[in-house]
Design goal:
The structure holds two protein chains of two kinds.
Chain A: H1 21-28, E1 58-59, E2 62-67, E3 70-75, E4 79-81, E5 84-87, E6 93-97, E7 100-107, H2 108-129, H3 135-148, H4 150-154, E8 159-167, E9 172-178, E10 184-187, E11 190-193, H5 197-207, H6 214-231, E12 247-252, E13 255-258, H7 261-275
Antiparallel strand pairs in A: 1-4, 1-7, 2-3, 2-11, 3-12, 4-5, 6-7, 7-8, 8-9, 9-10, 12-13
Helix pairs in contact in A: 2-3, 5-6
Chain B: H1 9-26, E1 30-35, E2 38-44, E3 53-57, E4 60-66, H2 68-88, H3 96-113, E5 120-126, E6 135-139, E7 145-148, E8 151-154, H4 158-168, H5 175-187, H6 190-195, E9 207-213, E10 221-224, H7 226-233
Antiparallel strand pairs in B: 1-2, 1-8, 2-9, 3-4, 4-5, 5-6, 6-7, 9-10
The chains are: A alpha+beta, B alpha+beta.
Chain lengths: ~300, ~270
């Protein structure tokens, strides 16, 4: 960031105008913004070496569920670089402000930077205006940031977050999904993004009930992540050896709350116990596989 | 053909200082009181929207008296400074000291180079992990900085209010005690002194109060609304009926930015001596 050598506040700081941090920084110090960097035309294919063939870490599955008192957002803990597990305990669900949160899928480095900017953007607006940004306003700001990343997305470094929160004006939990072009779509009931989202969505469809309590929604989110991890190699299941659980956040009228380790351990261990011998989680069926069948795939 | 008069630099500075001081003394006061639970900011302000007290960053807050448009401009600049710094470095790299320095340089430049100085006085405060790590900086219209300990009063009747605080403030007070002290101090202005009937009561809906709470994590700034205030003050929202006839600046309680447009009337509190 540029500093006035005299130590006084640069003239741009004293200009009345936008309450947007991004707009201000774009005029004053564009080099600190994520969008200011250009990739070589060859894209990420030009990077070589290192595990995972030089691919940047990718964050994977996020699920979001509307509950009776707000929303529940959960993310697994795995980041992958090609065929390699880049990180086992990455966090992909972040508070955006007191009443909303963002879960990220896609290129982890860019996504985390985007979330950081988004957090400052919301806080900056709140401080300058003395009022909270509307839920729609927040969703639109995030949309603009994703659109700013379109160039990189076309080169394979896409960021696809899911935005969820409690709309104080409407008094309900809401979920907004995005595509790489910044298109935003409001989701009813539940949504999942990332490589394991196909499997998670299947699970959510079967497990979701309208008007679930927060606790029930947490359970469903963990179940859905289990199903994603079961079939998607880039999604990490609960790591019982290292005691790494998914990140689960609840947003209600009272604000954002990340579930504590112990609270989550109970839910996860319960889900794991339920799936033991019944990996599909069908409540009506016990295990149908016999030891004779467990020889793996046959031609 | 007109020949410009020679005016000595001393005279120019004195005139500017007198001008700024007059503007500042015209508005209502802001009181900052440090206590065991954090730092309390209080002001008599009928407006719900035009704040004199504001959050700057996680542990840093801003309070001002004087012309609204001028201190609002500085406030916005401070929030931009803090957010940009916190975003490019880390949240822990935003300090009250850095911000106070930037304000001091800015105000100093404006005072010497512009024909009209800013009619503002500011406090930049940072709540520390313990009470002795609290930092309270007071900045005046000419860019001078004072490192204050315990309490600050600025604006109209600052002298009387400071005297009240000096007598009663002590380290280690809890939040309700500090708040009661701040509100009583606001009520012990020149008019109350003239009436000789002790501090005048101020209704909770006429107060703008905020706290930097030491125990909170991340954003420590919290505004206290009328219900929370009534709880903490142990009152049911008393009415400011007493001595309203002699209240100074009764005409400026229209929600207009303080001091901005007010004309000094005969009941303007005496200006503090230079």
């Amino acid at each position: 960031m540029s500093q006035d050598p005299s130590g006084r506040l640069p003239a741009a700081f004293l200009v009345p105008g936008s309450s947007s941090f991004t707009d201000f920084v774009r005029d004053h110090a564009p080099e600190v913004l994520p969008g200011a960097r250009r990739l070589p035309a060859a894209g990420t294919g030009a990077l070589t070496g290192g595990p995972g063939a030089g691919q940047p870490p990718h964050a994977t599955t996020i699920v979001a569920i509307v509950s009776a008192d707000g929303v529940v957002v959960a993310g697994d803990r795995r980041a992958t670089a090609g065929n390699v597990i880049a990180q086992r305990d990455i966090e992909k669900v972040f508070p955006a402000d007191d009443h909303s949160c963002v879960g990220i899928a896609g290129t982890a480095g860019l996504a985390i930077e985007m979330v950081r900017l988004f957090q400052v953007e919301l806080e900056h607006f709140e401080k300058l205006e003395g009022a909270l940004m509307s839920f729609e306003g927040k969703a639109n700001r995030l949309s603009a940031m994703i659109r700013g990343n379109l160039g990189l997305a076309m080169q394979g470094l896409a960021v696809v977050p899911v935005f969820a929160g409690y709309d104080l004006a409407e008094g309900r939990g809401r979920i907004v999904s995005y595509d790489v072009t910044g298109g935003r779509y409001e989701e009813v009931d539940h949504h999942a993004v990332g490589s394991g989202s196909v499997f998670a969505r299947g699970a959510l469809k079967k497990l979701f009930r309208p008007g679930m309590s927060g606790d029930e929604a947490v359970r469903v989110a963990v179940e859905a992540l289990w199903d994603a991890a079961d079939d998607d190699s880039a999604t990490g299941g609960p790591d019982l050896l290292r005691r790494i659980w998914p990140v689960v956040a609840q947003v209600t009228a009272d604000g954002f709350r990340r579930l504590g380790e112990d609270e989550l351990a109970e839910v996860v261990q319960d889900v794991v116990a339920g799936r033991t011998g019944n990996p599909g989680g069908n409540p009506l069926a016990g295990t149908t596989r016999t030891s004779a069948q467990q020889g793996g795939a046959t031609a | 053909m007109s020949v410009p008069f020679y005016v000595s630099p001393e005279q120019v500075m004195k005139d500017k200082a007198d001008f700024a001081r007059k503007g500042i003394a015209r508005g209502r006061a802001v009181v900052v009181v440090a206590c065991a639970d954090g730092i309390v900011f209080a002001s008599e302000n009928a407006s719900r929207a035009l704040h004199k007290i504001s959050e700057v960053y996680d542990r840093v807050a801003f309070a001002a008296v004087g012309k609204y448009n001028e201190f609002e401009n500085l406030r916005v600049a401070g929030v931009r400074y803090a957010d940009l710094r916190g975003y490019s470095y880390d949240r822990s790299d935003v300090t009250a000291r850095g911000l106070a320095n930037a304000y001091a340089q800015t105000l100093g430049t404006i005072f010497t180079t512009e024909s009209k100085p800013y009619e503002v006085e500011l406090v930049v405060a940072e709540v520390g992990a313990t009470a002795d790590q609290d930092q309270v900086y007071r900045l005046t219209y000419d860019g001078s900085v004072a490192d204050e300990h315990g309490y600050v009063a600025m604006g109209g009747s600052a002298e009387q209010i400071t005297a009240h605080l000096a007598e009663r403030w002590q380290p280690g007070m809890d939040l309700p005690a500090a708040l009661r002290l701040a509100v009583r101090a606001l009520g012990s202005d020149a008019a109350a002194a003239a009436a000789g009937s002790g501090p005048r009561a101020i209704a909770t809906d006429q107060l703008e109060v905020a706290v930097l709470e030491r125990a909170r994590t991340r954003r420590t700034f919290r505004r206290l609304g009328a219900p929370a205030l009534a709880d903490l003050l142990g009152t049911g929202g008393t009415d400011a009926g007493t001595g309203s006839g002699t209240e100074p600046g009764a005409g400026e309680s229209t929600g207009a930015p303080d001091g901005g447009t007010a004309v000094p009337g005969p009941d303007t509190p005496p200006e503090p001596p230079a």
